[in-house]
Amino acid sequence: MSSTPKTLFEKVWEQHVVAEPKGEPTLLYIDLQLVHEVTSPQAFEGLRLAGRKVRRPDRTIATIDHNVPTTIEGRLNIVDQISAKQISTLRQNCKDFGVELYDIDSREQGIVHVIGPELGITKPGMTIVCGDSHTSTHGAFGALAFGIGTSEVEHVLATQTLPQSKPTTFRIAVEGKLPQGVTAKDIILAIIGKIGTDGATGCVIEYAGSAIRSLSMEGRMTVCNMSIEAGARAGMIAPDETTFAYLKGRRFSPQGADWDKAVEEWKKLPSDPGAKYDRELVIDAATLAPYVSWGTSPGMVAPVTASVPDPAAAANEQDRKSFERALEYMDLKAGTPLSEVAIDRVFIGSCTNGRIEDLRAAAKIAAGHKVSSRVHAMVVPGSQQVKAQAIEEGLDKVFKEAGFDWREPGCSMCLGMNPDILSPGERCASTSNRNFEGRQGRGGRTHLVSPEMAAAAAIAGHFVDIRNWEVREEVTA
Amino acid sequence: MEPFKTLTSLAMPLDRTNVDTDQIIPKQFLKRIERTGYGDFLFFDWRQTPEGKPVADFVINNPRYKGAQILVAGKNFGCGSSREHAAWALSDYGFRVVIAPTFADIFFSNAGKNGIVLARLTEGEVETLLQNAQKIPGYKLTVSLEEQTVKDDRGFSAKFDIDPFRKFCLLEGLDDIGLTLRHAAELDKFEQQHEAATWLRAK
Question: Residues 402-461, chain A: which have Cβ within 8 Å of B?
Answer without folding.
Answer: 415-417, 424, 434, 436-439, 442-443
